[in-house]
Design goal:
- The complex is a heterodimer of chains A (253) and B (75).
- By secondary structure, chain A is α/β, with parallel strands linked by helices.
- Chain A has one domain: Thiamin diphosphate (ThDP)-binding fold, Pyr/PP domains (Rossmann fold), CATH 3.40.50.
- Chain A has 9 helices and 10 strands.
- Chain A has a 7-stranded mixed beta sheet with strand order 3-2-4-5-9-8-10, with helices on both faces. A two-stranded antiparallel sheet of chain A has the order 6-7.
- In chain A, helix 7 links the parallel strand 8 and strand 9.
- The longest helix of chain A has 19 residues.
- Chain A starts with 10 loop residues before the first strand and ends with a strand.
- Chain B has one domain: Alpha-Beta Plaits (2-Layer Sandwich), CATH 3.30.70.20.
- Chain B is elongated.
- The relative contact order of chain B is 0.38.
- In chain B, strands 1-4 form a two-stranded antiparallel sheet. In chain B, strands 2-3 form a two-stranded antiparallel sheet.
- Chain B is mainly beta and 75 residues long.
- Classes of the chains: A alpha/beta (253), B mainly beta (75).
- Chains A and B meet through strand 1, helix 1, helix 7 and helix 9 of A and strand 1, helix 1, helix 2 and strand 4 of B.
- The complex binds thiamine diphosphate and iron/sulfur cluster (3 copies).
- One iron/sulfur cluster (SF4) binds next to helix 8 of chain A.
Chain lengths: 253, 75
Amino acid sequence: MMKVEKISENMVYQKPRLITNNTMHYCPGCSHGTVHKIVAELIDEMGLEDNAVAVSPVGCSVLAYNYIDIDWVQAAHGRAPAIATALKRLMPDRLVFTYQGDGDLAAIGTAETIHSLVRGENIVIIFINNAIYGMTGGQMAPTTLIGQKTATTPYGRDTALNGFPYKMGEIAAMMPGVTYVTRQSVDKPAAVRAAKKAIKKAFENSIGCKGTSFVEIVATCNSGWKLSPVASNDWMRENMFPEYPLGDLKNNG
Amino acid sequence: MAKIKGTIEVDIQKCKGCAVCVSVCPTKVIELGAKVNDKGYNYVVMLNEDDCIGCAGCAMVCPDSVITVYKKKFE
Ligand SMILES: Cc1ncc(C[n+]2csc(CCOP(=O)(O)OP(=O)(O)O)c2C)c(N)n1
Ligand code: SF4
Ligand code: SF4
Ligand code: SF4
């Protein structure tokens, strides 16, 4: 039998260098880890290790700075784009990006999000849309689907009571100062490749000061959704993708 | 005829047994094993190493970056 030796010349994939050895606190199968990995790979491949500053949110990814070995600032809930604005204006040659969940970006941080897009800040916003508040126990988020059951919508989101889900990507795309808006996922190898390409483009826009780039990742929160990680990916493809279709919404880069 | 073969190494103490990798493997050569690691997770094991093509799909979707992939072409 032909046997592949586990030696460096045969190695084709390994943990990215900039992913630390800390065990991630995320639930098994959570999309956050996969997105972190893409970000870490890109920063290494683009040689930006000492030239990138990221802003972490409040939400499950508050501790992202423990996992990606670059410079970070941790913002108050929803304020990441305001902090990123200051960082980029003070250090215009840096890559500056935020990493935010839907509760952080689309609920408490709505003002900061909208106004950084209105100003066309030269930052990247990475938006993890898992349609729920993961960290606090699975309450309804602005992006929760109609009929979706959460801790605060136990009978399903009812539009008469809870309003409608809103599409941050479409809102971002309306703004003249926003250069690039894309919606991706990380549930399959091909999706991971596409998401990586998209984040790379966004990072290049920030380095080149070409306006705001908004990368939405349609993601899972299997704990909040009360499904297994694999069933969550199926549920996402079936229910989230029709509401939040994948692909570029704007590309003026 | 040249044949591409692969294999993987799993950092078993860091695997959380989420099975996301299992669901994307095109040749169905990995599964959650019966044994658990120190954290109590059933970690991923290879069933039939001979069928692994080294595509790295499993490693790409692993949120915890615990899979290393090796590949070799045999003439
Ligand atoms: C000012 C303030 N209000 C409320 C909270 C409670 N809180 C913590 S995380 C969170 C929402 C997180 O949801 P999301 O941004 O979707 O991130 P996820 O955990 O799903 O990744 C809330 C409301 C807080 N920490 N601070
Ligand atoms: S609660 Fe949800 S978003 Fe938070 S780590 Fe768990 S699966 Fe991920
Ligand atoms: S490298 Fe490809 S074929 Fe081998 S175990 Fe991983 S997904 Fe399956
Ligand atoms: S995706 Fe990673 S953590 Fe999940 S079961 Fe596979 S190897 Fe383990």
